[in-house]
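Sanity check record (used in CI):
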Amino acid sequence: MNSSLAALSAVNFFVADVADGWGPFLGVYLQQQRWTPGQIGLAMTIGGFAGMLATAPLGALVDHIRAKRLLVVVGALAIVFASFAVFTTTGFVAVTSTQIVTGIAAAAIGPALSAITLGLVGQAGFARQNGRNQAYNHAGNVVSAALAGAFGYWLGFGAVFAVMAAMAVTSVIALAWIDPRHIDYRAARGLAQETESAASAWSVLVTCKPLLVLAATLLLFHLGNAAMLPLLGQSLVAQGAGDGSAFTGATIVIAQLTMVPMALLAARLADTRGYWLVFWLALLALPIRGLIAAYATGPSGLVPVQILDGVGAGLLSVAVPGLVARILEGTGHINAGLGAVMTMQGIGASLSTAVAGSVADAFGYSTAFLALGAIALLALALWMATRRITVAADRIRPS
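Expected output for MFS transporter:
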């Protein structure tokens, strides 16, 4: 069992870079290929929506198949091949198609890894192991971003793809070291040992009040959160504070480094105090972040803003799958529920940039940050107002 858990940590480290495909490097590469910002944004948006729409069905698929490791392998390799295809053609339809493949494949990886984790350690050990998973994932993001940036600077964009491909191959090798005999496939979907799931996934999800509250809260959180980083870079450039791309890279590293200890802290708090508190702390960080960003006047303002981003994202990376697992324990539809919640997150994130951009155009950047912070306060208010519902679900423990 210990060897399988060590391999799982390695998978989370190496797959971190793969799941995003080209990530932030794609826009720069396409810009060099004479794409307009509008074309780049449209291609990425289409890919993001494809992944968002696929997340819930793929979560349901994860619940019903035993080949969960194979699903991660297929997803990782699909992303690598789709990313390589960008080198062969830069036509709009072809590149957009690669982003659709990347979005759908990435949507399968998260629920599959969550299910494998739950199958290996069960409900009792899920918070601790998921915290370890997310810490390795964030560390992998930092390392891969540093390697891709350095080799890309020296050798060109081909080196960025080479780093991603190497991470993908290594993640596949690590997956092979997870012994399938160690995975309890009933526990992996949250199914009680003595029963089969009688209700359909759809009926379970739409009638589960704690899950609906969680989904609505996360939609509001990501509506307030997703646009804050790109808007901050634009704000600093508008102030003449320096190079926006350098600042953006620095903010990503600051946030990811903060997420590592936050993921470990979230796991400890979930075990001792419950997930409700973890969510409350994550939600509280965002309005404070918006307030600071509204009055940040230079690069020095980046540090506290992105530390708070790391606090919120690091806590939620552990709390979201953990609380979904507790809420839906015994239904056999945990991963379908996780996929549905991730879809709501995606809707909020997709709308965030449009809302923030419109406010910034009309009233300025400071007002836009305050507006994003106000949306975050709505998420916090909803979470506190429904505390009785969510706390009761958080207290569910495996028998």
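The two ends are 22 Å apart (CA to CA). If this sentence no longer matches the regenerated tokens, the check is flagged for review.
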